[in-house]
Amino acid sequence: VQLQASGGGVVQSGGSLRLSCTASGGTFFYMAWHRQAPGRQREMVAMDNSEGATFYGDAVKGRFAISRDDTKSTSFLEMNRLEPADTAVYYCYARDTGGKGYWGQGTQVTVSS
Predict the structure, then answer these.
(1) What's the pLDDT tens digit per position in 73-106?
(2) Cβ count near 90 (within 10 Å)
């Protein structure tokens, strides 16, 4: 199983980025994005599952949107109105139908003020 994340970068405050995570080697009904800023614990940003349920962390509600393309086992995280506080390494996470979880490599998002 592999999760390949991409789309991070440097953006000015108020800008947008779109992260992608493609999973291979399994069937994944649950995909999520987490982030970890320096000196802070990893936190969940957003998740969705094959039944359409979604969750957003309070800090990103109304600014971030998670979506997926099940035909390509890909999760997307659209991030709008980015703030310096959103600066972190973003990780994708997927859980397969057997309940086993997998982490992708992180992608750095840096928001300059």
Answers:
(1) 899 999 999 999 999 999 999 998 888 999 999 9
(2) 23
Residues near 99 by beta carbon (within 8 Å), at least 6 away in sequence: none
What does pLDDT average to over the chain?
95
d(C-alpha 3, C-alpha 79), whole Å: 20
Q: What is the C-alpha to C-alpha distance for residues 55 and 61, in angstroms, rounded to an integer? A: 9
Give Cα 94 to chain centroid, integer Å: 10
Q: Is the separation of the CB atoms in 21 and 92 below 8 Å?
A: yes
Rounded Cα distance, 16 and 30, in Å: 24
